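Q: What structure does this chain adopt?
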Amino acid sequence: MKNKRTCIPISGACNSNCIFCMDNWSLSKFISIEEIKAKLISAKKYSNEVTFSSLEPTLHPNLLDIIKKAKELWFSRIEIVTNWRKLKDYVYTENLVKSWINEFDISIHHINKDKHDFIVQSKWAFDEWISWLINVCKLSKKYNIKKTVSVTVCKQNYNEILKIVYFLEKFWLDSIVLNILQPRHSAVKNKDLTFVNYSKMLYEFLKLKTLQHKYNNIYINWLVPCLEENLKEIIW
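A:
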């Protein structure tokens, strides 16, 4: 039985400029719809779920057609990984859902407006995230939408991870994913602003253990061996 998910990068453009960006900005601005459709047909042979990503897929001018093609091929889950900035537009967001997007993986990196906007190097980004949250809360009453928020752990937020998780849990998210930085692209270029000592990170992650009895939807992604060994008692 097919249970795998295929990730298809569709955009080399972005409307943020995150200090830790790990994506490859050398991609062509937008992957052609013909190429994406060919990848979808190929992916359907071995998977029944698809994720559209990199850099910011909501900027792709043919996104609705791409989603409809995935629907025609009967992908059961169609996810989009996004910085959510365009989703402040309620009509646009609802059109994505009507086209068959049923899972959003949204990035937010701090609950303080100034700190968040510094991390993504874009003014008003935090305000736009709040608008998205309101839109999705409204749409959740009409559609079955799965919602994930991803937080990239860096020097600017690692010591407030517990506070960020507490805040996000108020919004009944399906999952919260904490991503550990990988040494790629802008993350390396801005290493003085991004990377934090693993021992300091571990100290903050261990505080999450206090949440185990209450939440089971928090995950740590891209664990390095030294962190994994010390966090093995944390079940997520």
